[in-house]
Amino acid sequence: MTTVSQGRFLMKTTIYLAVLSAAILVALGADAQAQEPPRTEPAMSAMPSPSSLSQPLPAPPTAAEAPGSLRAPAPPLTQMWVYAVGSSNCNWEYTAGRSVTSCNHGGAQLRAAVLEIGYGSARVAWMNGGVLPASARYASTPVCVTGGSYTWPCTPGQTVVGFLNEYNLDGHQSGLFRYQNTSTNSPWNTLAVQISIL
């Protein structure tokens, strides 16, 4: 074989091996996804969603209500509340802006719903000082602005301005629930909120 022929053979072999390696990696990835166990959400039959509360929070004037608004970067986190606390004993209690619940919560189920305006990507929740697993967040509902108030669920065409994140706190009868999140983009600020659950 001449040097030119050897070079072509080596190049073809290298390309063939690269394509073969990529195909193997794709096949392994597809197999791993196929073997992933199905994820199930905990049954929430006894407590309705906190959206059943008729306590709208006023939203500042914004272009978010305008239909067909242009695409833009995700807004940073600007506001956050523990919107509601729910339990078997009290059902949902509206708590936005409060530092302590008024109802004596407890029973088999305990839930907290956090309303955050803006986009975050580093959420952490604690109950009585212990970090909750990511699986404790059983629902995240996009929030939009309708008629000057934050509303959910959003309708097609609305701009998502935040999220209502719901946490499962079962096993706790009372205590301190704390939540924080950091903005997805500039200024990468961190907001936190907490409530003492009686």
Note down, in words, how this protein is organized.
The chain has 198 residues and is α+β, with helices and mostly antiparallel strands. The protein has two domains: 1-30; 55-197, Immunoglobulin-like (Sandwich). The chain has one helix and eleven strands. The longest helix is centred in the N-terminal third of the chain and has 33 residues, at 3-35. It is globular and about 45 Å long. The termini are far apart. Residues 16-45 have low confidence and may be disordered.
In terms of topology, how is this protein built?
Elements: H1 3-35, E1 57-58, E2 79-87, E3 91-94, E4 110-117, E5 124-127, E6 130-131, E7 137-146, E8 149-151, E9 162-168, E10 175-182, E11 190-197
Antiparallel strand pairs: 1-8, 2-3, 2-4, 4-9, 5-6, 5-10, 7-8, 7-9, 10-11
